Structure formats: C-alpha cells, structure tokens
Amino acid sequence: MSVKIKVGILTVSDSCSKGEAEDLSGPLLKQLVLDDSTLNGEVVATECVPDNIEDIRRALVSWSDGSNADLILTTGGTGFAARDVTPEATLSVLDKQAPGIVTSMLVGSLSVTPLAALSRPAAGIRGRTIIINLPGSKKAVKECFGFIRPALRHAVDLLHDRTRPVVATHAALQGSMARSHVCPHQVEGSTNHDAGDGSGGVAGRPRQSTWPMITVEEAQSAIFSECQKIIKKRNKNNSDELNILGKELVGYRDSLGRVLCQDVVAKDPLPPFPASMKDGYAVIAQDGAGIRTVRGEASAGCDPGMGELTTMEVFRINTGAPVPPGADAVVMVEETKLIKKTEDGKEELEIEIMTAPQVGQDIRPVGCDISLGETVLSAGTILGPGEVGLLAAVGVTEVLVSKLPRVAVLSTGNEIQEPGEELQPGHVRDSNKTTLLALLASNGVNAIDAGIAKDDLVNLTSALQSAFDQSDVLVTTGGVSMGDRDLLRQVLVSNFGAEIKFARVQMKPGKPTTFATCTVNNQAKLIIGLPGNPVSATVTCHLYVLPAAKMLAGFSSPLPGKIRAKLRSPAPLPLDPRPEYARVQLSFQPGSALADAVPTGNQISSRLASMANANGLLLLPAKSDGMKVAPVGYECDAILIGNIMLNV
Q: Which of 124, 230, 278, 434 gives 332 a disulfide partner, CB atoms 3.0 to 4.6 angstroms apart?
C-alpha cells in the first residue's frame, strides 16, 4: 500500500472568506482528492482566505514549512481581476517553479475553451511540498485536477526520495508496464469526453455532445430547485410561509396577476345598508295586497336617511337602492298595476300590489355579501380581475404583493439584427426576443430587453455582464448548440464561474436547452439558454422560463395546465425518437369533454408561423417499435398556451 499523501486545500476568495458566498470549489477539490485511489491522499488542512497576498503566503508557508502537507492545492484568484493575486503570493514562497504542471493545465484547458489563455496559475516546490494553483470555478477545478492528476503521485514520491514507487513508475513509462492512454478530461456532467480529434480549431471541435440527455420533468425540477434556493436566501429573515423574493406595496389596479402578501379585511359591510334586489316598490309587508299611495322614489346612490315609510304607502325603488326606513319588503314592478297618475301622466300617484309580500322579500340585508371585519382575501391569493374588483369593493386601494423577479432577454448571433433596421445581407430580424418579451409580458412579467450579442468572446462577455447587472433570471436565445460559434456555455463557465446544470433535454423542439447558475456581485443568477430556432425558443419558454418566473413570483403551482385532447389531422403524424411538443389549435365541440387538436402546419423548429395560431402543445410520445406514428384520433395530454374556443 502506498504512503498516504497529506493534502492541504486553500480557497482564495474575498466573498467566501466573509461568508457572503458559499465555497463550492474547495469542497469539490477535497472530494476529488479523496476519490482518487491512485493519489491515495488525505486532506489534513483546509482554509478559506481573502484575496490578499499576506494571507495567502501565511497559509502556504505554515502548511509547507510545518511539514503538514505534501501537496497544497489552491483554488481561486488566478484571473485578471485586480484582486487576483494567488499566483503572485505563490511565486513569492516557492524554491523552484514547476512550469510543466502549469503547461499541462493550460494545454488541457485550452482544448476546452480559448478563454483558458486568461488563466495565470503558478506551480512549484517549497521544501518538500508541492504547491499548485487551480482556477476558482467548480468546472475548471474538476478539469484542471483531471489534467494534472496522473503526475501528482509520482511528483510527491520523487520529492520524498521514495525509490520503490519511483522505479516502478519509470519502468512503466519504459514499456514493461505500459498501458493504453486514458484521457483524464471529463466534461462535468458527462460520462465520455468530447469526440473531437484534438487538432484545435473548427476541424477539431466535438462532433457529439457530452451532456447527458435528461427528461423535461427532470429539467423543470432542476430549475425549480435553484429557484427555491434563491427564494430561501432572499427570504431568510421573513417569518411567513410565502415562498417569495420579497414584498412591495402597489396600487390595487397594478396588482393584477400578483401574489397577495397580506390578508385583506373588510372595513365596511357590503352592502352597507339594506338594498333592493329589484326595480319595484318598497312596502310594508303587513299591509298585504291592495292599492297604495306612491310617496316618492328611492334610487341607487341616494341618501338612505329619508323619511320613514308609513302604512299604506310605498316608495318607488331601483335595484341597489337603499330600502327606506319602515319598509321591510320589495315588490317588483311586474307584480303591480298602475291605478292613478298625475295630470301630465309623468308620475305615479297610486299603484296596486297584486300579491301580498313576505317580510324581507327581495332585500339584501346589511353585510349579506361581506360582513364587517371579514377576511375577503388571504395571503397567497393570486390576484385576478375578480380579486382586484373585490379590493375596490372593500376600499383597499394599496396592497402588499410579492416582488417580481427581474428577467432579461438576450439574443445572440452574428446574423441577428433589430427588427426596425433595413435587412442586411446574410441577416435575419430578431423575432425571438420580440416573441419572448411579448410572451412574458402577457403573463405579467415585464422583462428587460438586453439587446443582441455577437458571437465573439469579448462582445458576448460584455453583453452577459450588462444583463446580469439588471436581472435575476437571464434568458438567452442561440449559442447553445454544436456550432463552432456557439460560445455561451464556455463564456459562462470561464468568465462568470457558472455551473452548468444541464445542456440537453429529451424533447423536440428544444434539445440543446441549457440551464446554468452563477454568482455575480454576491447575487445568485439563473441562466436559461434557449435554442436559436424561433419555435424551439417559444416552446421552451413556455416549459421553463414562464414556470421559473412564476415560481420566483410566489406561485405555488407554476406549471401550465393540461387537458386531454384528440388528434385531428388529415393523416397520421410521424413520431420522433424524442417526445414532441407539437403546436396545435385546441377547441371543443359542444358537449365534448375532449378537445380537438389540429396541427398548425409544418412542425419544423424554424417555422415561427406554426406558433402564430397555436393555443396548445400536444404531447406526442417518442417513437417506439410498437408505435411509429400518431394515428388520427390519438388521445394524449396537451399543454395550454392560449385561450380555448368552443366550436359552434
């Protein structure tokens, strides 16, 4: 059994050292060390220090000179930022540099992203301790550890003059124990490395995605999990049970579609006076049927403090008007007869009650709709038109509602231009962003237009930074597929330390949909990367973006509704190896509980016209040996994305 290697892990981060952010890379590095049976390492020291040369030097010198560590791995502080000083601190304590280790990391990283050229790691020896700087992001830490892992055990053995393992390793290199090369690079989340040929440039790009294919339900669950983390962090000082980002006071007319964060209590009864339910006459019930004198009129909106009604008299009354004092019933006009009128024929003097009334007939008592002090709306209620009207009825003109997430939409692509510009050769107008902004607005999310980013590293990085400054959720379109210009994932990881949660979903359209998280200015950000094809972007917005926005806004049930539908098409629909979300028009025949689903034409992902008249997404199953087409009349679920009409 080889001697255990004592390893120290040093995280360098201002925000993590202050407790403002969670250290993710340090624990990952510890697990990588413990999981590596070849290294046979034990972690004897861990620490998190700020981006300060003296603090970094202190830890490195203490661990190496005190014989506490054979190997020190640092993470963070190797970039171009002003506070990135880990290499400078490391170089100042080294006896010898180890440029081969640095080269191994850089060459390996450059095969993943050209932005690795911006990394400045240092590595070398102090006494009998090897010190190596690794990047700060989880993905980069995992990759770089994989690049240098094969050499670490041998390096420590050499430094400690362990003859037997050194000789064995040299013999293996000479061929007596030769084995085939195993590439240590594993893309996070994948089980096999990219299928590129390693030659660099577009010719050496991967030909197959390494990301595992997950289901739509798994993708939604991953997004919801990260939404809940943000809500929990923002809401940690709030004692109520609402899952929200925060609260704000808004006018009642601006509260439509928001989640109520307070109980609304009636400060007046409704109606506030006994009110007539009919147009007719206010009467005294015990007077019974017969001829009555018409004393005057009680109309809606008049002062209910009129003189008291006496026996054998009636007041003419309108629906909603206060019942005059002394009256205890209302007789509708249809149950009376005119007996006498004024000489000009304009006013009634006497009428006849045809049927004896009952006490309380056609009168709404005080508070019969809403009583004084009654809770009319509870916290957590989604405010629709009826609820907003109820706020007005009880005189509540300002309410506490949940804060909405800040959502930004960014288009990417060299070929994309603004809709109002003269169309340039080789360009298309940006319909994706327009569609998504309109879709979000129709669901109560006033998203920010983050513009168009070109497919180059500098422009994309700048556009992402600007969008992050304005948003909690960044929605991008394009740049997530397999093209050599699809740079989004690598820029997110390399420049923003993002963690890619998934990058392929078992669905059509929308397979390359990507979801990532990162922290910018100590604020957690969610990135939902939608495909560039217009239909793919719209469908995936319904499935991922809108539900995420609703969950962050406080909705307890953020997913769209489903109904059962029957396929109505001229011919069977060929099925795809992936489950398909076919755009359809949903409608009901009178008396039918099953919707008719009529496809909106060609279903290719670039045909935006297929979305124009769609109000549903028909959930067609994946093709199988037993089912290669969906026959006419096939029944399945359909997701609602618009209003449903009744065929007449």
A: 278
Strands 407-412 and 473-477 turn out to be parallel
Give CA–CA dist 318/124, Å, rounded.
94
d(C-alpha 168, C-alpha 154), whole Å: 10
Q: 3-state class of 29 per DSSP?
A: helix
Interatomic CA distance for residues 487 and 505, integer angstroms: 19
Question: What's the sign of the alpha-carbon dihedral 460, 462, 465, 467?
Answer: negative
Query: Could you tell me where the beta strands, DSSP code E, fall in 158-260?
Result: 247-251
If you search the block for the tokens 């979801």, which residue do you land on?
515
Tell me how many degrees the CA angle 19-187-515 measures, rounded to the nearest 5.
60
Q: Cβ of 636: how many Cβ atoms within 10 Å?
A: 16
Say what the alpha-carbon torsion angle 295, 301, 304, 307 is, to the nearest 10 degrees.
-30
* 162 three-class SS: coil
pLDDT of residue 181: 32
Backbone angles phi, psi at 225, to 5 degrees: -60, -45
Vertex 533: Cα angle to 527 and 534 (nearest 5)? 90
Strand ranges (E), 426-486? 428-429, 448-453, 473-477
pLDDT tens digits, 14-29: 999 999 899 999 999 9
Mean pLDDT of the region 349-373: 96
Angle between helices 138-159 and 488-496 (to 10 degrees): 60
Q: Can you tell me the mean pLDDT for 230-248?
A: 83
Q: Where are the alpha helices (DSSP H) in 86-215?
A: 86-91, 99-110, 138-159, 163-174
Task: Indicate the SS3 state at residue 327.
Answer: coil
Q: How far apart are the C-alpha atoms of 420 and 133, rounded to whole Å?
A: 49
Q: What is the pLDDT of residues 37-54, one digit of tens each?
A: 778 899 999 999 999 999
DSSP codes of every residue in 268-320: S-BSSS-EESSSEEEE-GGG-SEEEEEEEEE-TTS-S-PPPP-TTEEEEE-TT
